[in-house]
Amino acid sequence: MKQGLWAAALAALALAGCGSTGGARSASSTPPPTVNKNPYPSTYRAYPGRPVALVGGTVFDGTGKRIEGGTVLLRDGKVVAVGDAGLATEGYERVDAAGKFVTPGVIDIHSHLGVYPSPSVQAHSDGNEATDPTTPEVWAEHSVWPQDPGFTRAMAHGGVTSLMILPGSANLMGGRSVTLKNVPARTVQGMKFPGAPYGMKMACGENPKRVYGSKGRMPSTRMGNFAVNRQTWLDAKADDGKKRNLANETLKGVMAGEILLHNHCYRADEMAQVIDMSKEMGYKVASFQHAVESYKIGDLLREGGICSAVWADWYGFKMESYDGIPENAALLFKEGACVVIHSDDENGIQRLNQEASKAAAAGRRMGIAIADEAVIRWITLNPAKAMGIDAMTGSLEPGKMADVVLWNGNPLSVYSRPERVWVDGALLYDSADPLLRPVTDFELGQPGAGDVK
Question: Is 213 helix (H, G, I), strand (E, B) or coil?
């Protein structure tokens, strides 16, 4: 789709979401008042695409399979088939992928794009409601600025097609996260991943005790962190629901398994204690974020079905990160635990493929063999699993969303970059076409906007 059509496409999508009754609803048809579990529903509509066959490339399908000289068929926004050169391509626009690589769209499970957007100024700092140690009532989507240039950079440089936006980590309970499709839209609802469950962000360790201890209030210690958490969960369990309480609605959603819990935590001992607290209070941890000491408790994480969203080699920037090691992801992989490479950074999100490659290389140096096609899972299917969207995206399997990246070389090479990116079968980025290098409204008119350098 040419850039000149983007505004028209957005308008068309907006019209498609309008009601067609032609008038106001009559009083007699008004439904009784209820508690709407999702009062801010997704209005996302896929951009128009056309049938495409990517032919002759090396396919990493996200499940751990590798196909040399493979074929991937996309139609009506879905993956139709994945196979070898024998797949019929009649009726499809053929894209020559010989010498190139095809993967699912990259997924970042930990991003603050939109809530800490560029330009990074105080007026844009909307990720931490650092006024109370527990704020489960806040929702990250109410801070997301869709015009953040970071979204388009994540696609052009990193092949990112979906991402979860989290509140910051100042609070023990930071609020709800939101999962987005990486597409241009006027509103955050226009980016919301349809059918994705909400998440909730928690944080343990240094951040909450530093932020609130410095204010002379609880918590100021790790035992204070757990005491405040436990009492907050108990209060939510005791809530009889007669009066709406936004905080408790979120917490009850977590305990019911409807909202997935993502916990910022560095130290292995604290992660183990959080697991115990989750059993006490009746919820499940979907992922530990940052998790630099996960390698110490890989068996506990495997048994609990908990993913570790980690960096390749960040460590040492505060005390709880000092035992971080580059082999963290590889050791978890060897243990059979779920590994995810995340960013937590507006620049790192553009290079998740390289971060995954670094993490795998550290493992290979210590004798842990990890195939490239297995590593790709760390930035595709595994984050999708932890985010609760793996039935819809994260791998190239028939019926799943056609979120696809064509790389100009092995995506685990520092020299490789996305050549084309499809979201739900619509070509939204093409490095060879200046009109398909999307820019945000904020960048329009800026010298060099949209250039990939």
Answer: helix
As a whole number of angstroms, the distance between CA 272 and CA 285 comes to 11
Task: Answer yes or no: pTM beyond 0.85.
Answer: yes
Beta strand extents in 233-326 (DSSP E only): 260-265, 285-290, 307-310
| Cβ–Cβ under 8 Å, residues 425 and 78 | yes
**What is the distance between the alpha carbons of residues 135 and 242, in angstroms, rounded to a whole number?**
20
Q: Phi and psi for 142 in degrees, rounded to 5?
A: -80, -5
> For 23-65, what is each residue's pLDDT tens digit?
333 333 444 444 567 899 999 999 999 999 999 999 999 999 9
User: 106-393 adopts what CATH topology?
Assistant: TIM Barrel (3.20.20)
Distance CA 40, CA 178 (A): 11
405 SS3 class: strand
Cα gap 133→222, rounded to integer Å: 13
Identify the band that residue 120 occupies on the pLDDT scale cut at 50, 70 and 90. confident
Triad 396, 163, 142: Cα angle to 5°: 145
- In sequence order, the 6+-apart residues with CB closer than 8 A to the CB of 286 are 199, 260, 261, 262, 306, 307, 386, 387, 388
Question: So what's the pLDDT on residue 435?
Answer: 86
pLDDT digits (tens, 9 = 90+) for 356-412: 999 999 999 999 999 999 999 999 999 999 999 999 999 999 999 999 999 999 999
Half-sphere exposure of 171 (CA within 13 A, CB side): 22
Q: At what angle do helices 268-281 and 222-238 cross, to 10 degrees?
A: 20
Q: What's the Cα-to-Cα distance from 246 to each of 31, 189, 239, 422, rounded to whole Å?
A: 22, 20, 11, 37
CA distance 100 to 404: 13
Confirm if 377 and 64 have CB atoms less than 8 A apart.
Answer: yes
Taking the domains of the chain in order of start, what are their residue ranges?
A: 106-393
Task: Please tell me the predicted confidence (pLDDT) of residue 438.
Answer: 74
Q: Which pLDDT does position 449 carry in this prediction?
A: 53
Query: Which spans in 314-423 are helix H?
Result: 328-335, 352-365, 372-375, 381-387
Q: Pull the structure tokens for residue 7.
A: 């505004």
* Model confidence pLDDT, tens digit, residues 52-108: 999 999 999 999 999 999 999 999 999 999 999 999 999 999 999 999 999 999 999
Q: How many CB atoms lie within 10 A of CB 6?
A: 18
